[in-house]
Amino acid sequence: MEDNDEGAERPPPSSTGKKSVIKIPSFQGTSSLGAGEDGVGGTSTSTSASHPKAASFSQAFSFVKSSEFYSPPPPPPPPAASQAADCARGHSAAAQSEDVPVGGIPSSSNGSSSSSPANFVAGSRNAILVSHRQKGNPLLKHIRNVRWVFADVVCDYLLGQTSCALYISLRYHLLHPDYLYYRIRELQKNFKLRVVLCHIDVEDVAKPLLEVTRTALLHDCTLLCGWRYALLISSVQMIKIVINSLNKEKRSVYR
């Protein structure tokens, strides 16, 4: 009896509890119609009959969007935020490029591209090219007899094709004793006239002034010292005026 019971066919399970199932077409169902081959779980024939052959993958699974399990993807972020950030960066860069210093002239693309005496721009020939390191230096407010403009130069003040000047204060020298040496070394052999402008802004000047003087003389530099900014920059303006007059005479002779 037990063997007979085991060999008897069991009735199929009741299908009273129906569940929502997404029928995904098999590869055979999408590639061939009416093949009659059983797919995974034996649902290939019914699936291929209910869903005809589609031309693409998206068309074959288009019915998934109508099911309850599908939720649309979130929309892409609007490009307005990125465009606004790019515009802000562009405006800030334009404002920096058109910066007009106190007592100077607007910096142009010609003046800012000169990084060596060989690239001394003809448009800024009569102006002192000031390095961007000197921004905020009170010394610039006292340059009134000649024009000056910010530019990318190795020295602090480019006076001509072979003339330049470096600026240092004794207070800064006490904090950074090797600063003047490294600045002079950056000039290499590109300038014949190298002036060191030393601002005396401390009471005890014996030791720091001796060190600055020794460094300047050992590297063939002309040292100019001054207590006041106006007195210190007057020598630089005079050098620039002389250079401009010499250049003017040379141009008149060649003409």
Automatic annotation (TrEMBL):
It is found in: Nucleus. Residues 71-80 have a biased composition (Pro residues). It comes from the Eukaryota. Residues 1-52, 67-118 are annotated as: Disordered. The keyword Membrane does not apply. Residues 102-118 have a biased composition (Low complexity). Keywords: DNA damage, DNA repair, DNA-binding, Nucleus. GO terms for molecular function: damaged DNA binding; single-stranded DNA binding. GO terms for cellular component: ERCC4-ERCC1 complex; nucleotide-excision repair factor 1 complex. Gene3D superfamilies: 3.40.50.10130. GO terms for biological process: double-strand break repair; mitotic recombination; UV-damage excision repair. Residues 128-229 form the ERCC1-like central domain. Its main location: nucleus. Belongs to the ERCC1/RAD10/SWI10 family. PANTHER family: DNA EXCISION REPAIR PROTEIN ERCC-1 (PTHR12749:SF0), EXCISION REPAIR CROSS-COMPLEMENTING 1 ERCC1 (PTHR12749). This is ERCC1-like central domain-containing protein. It comes from Colocasia esculenta (Wild taro).
